[in-house]
Design goal:
The chain is α+β, with helices and mostly antiparallel strands. The chain has two domains: 131 residues, Nuclear Transport Factor 2, Chain: A (Roll); 104 residues, no CATH class. It has four helices and four strands. It has a four-stranded antiparallel beta sheet. A hairpin with a 3-residue loop joins strand 1 and strand 2. Helix 2 packs across helix 3. It is rod-shaped.
């Protein structure tokens, strides 16, 4: 029976959360109207906490605004600690929206639940939870964010320097390969002229033998022992 009553109470609160009273279109709201609106939103915050305690937030996934508000409160509970209660709030009204901020008290930190409503339809447009941090905690988080940002920049610069250094090593390896291939080319160039000289010398010896035989035949001698060819020159005709 108690469980049934709890479910009925949660359903009733959900109805109040999704559409709780239209806001009258006036330039200003009276103090009584503001207090009634704050009380209604405090009930919504209590209900949101009950939904999270019972692990029922996934049941409201179809309502994007309410579901995002539940997720925001769930994420903030790590810093808030245990939920204590709510202690009033403030109301801001403009031509299109009504912003209600409910003070939420916790064992570790307090927070402000900000609910933005459409003034004409009284439907929720946004629900967010902002934790109240001390000045020291804010400075600590700011310093941590700065260190992380600078660290990321330095890591990227180091990676860029390593890549540039790798390009230098690649070029040195290519130059060393070229130097290793150069002596082989020089050896091939040196062998070719020597072979040409040997061929030229062999051609000269054959020419000398032929000339010597021709001279011996001309002189009527059967031997070329007495002949010495000192030079060969091409005759001009």
């Amino acid at each position: 029976m108690k469980k049934l009553l709890a479910i009925l109470g949660m359903v009733t609160c959900m109805i109040a959360l999704s559409a709780c009273g239209a806001v009258e279109e006036k330039d200003e709201m009276t103090a009584e109207e503001q207090q009634m609106l704050i009380s209604a939103r405090e009930t919504d915050v209590d209900y949101m906490h009950q939904v999270l305690e019972n692990g029922m937030e996934e049941q409201y996934a179809s309502n994007e605004v309410v579901y995002n508000g539940l997720v925001s409160l769930k994420n903030a509970m790590d810093d808030i600690g245990d939920y204590v209660d709510t202690s009033g709030g403030t109301v801001e009204v403009d031509e299109k929206e009504v912003v209600v901020r409910i003070n939420l008290n916790g064992t570790s930190h307090n927070a402000v639940v900000e609910m933005v409503m459409n003034r004409e339809t009284a439907e929720f447009e946004n629900i967010a939870v902002n934790v109240d941090y001390s000045l020291g905690e804010k400075m600590e988080k700011a310093a941590l964010n700065t260190v992380l940002g600078m660290g990321t920049v330095f890591v990227v610069l180091i990676l860029i320097s390593l890549i540039i250094s790798a390009f230098g090593l690649i070029s040195k390896a290519q130059n060393s390969n070229k130097k290793a291939d150069a002596p082989q080319e020089k050896k091939a160039e040196n062998v070719a002229p020597q072979a040409a000289v040997e061929e030229e010398l062999s051609d000269d010896l054959e020419l000398v033998a032929v000339i010597s035989a021709a001279i011996a035949a001309y002189e009527g001698s059967g031997s070329t022992d007495g002949f010495v060819v000192r030079s060969i020159r091409k005759a001009r005709r």
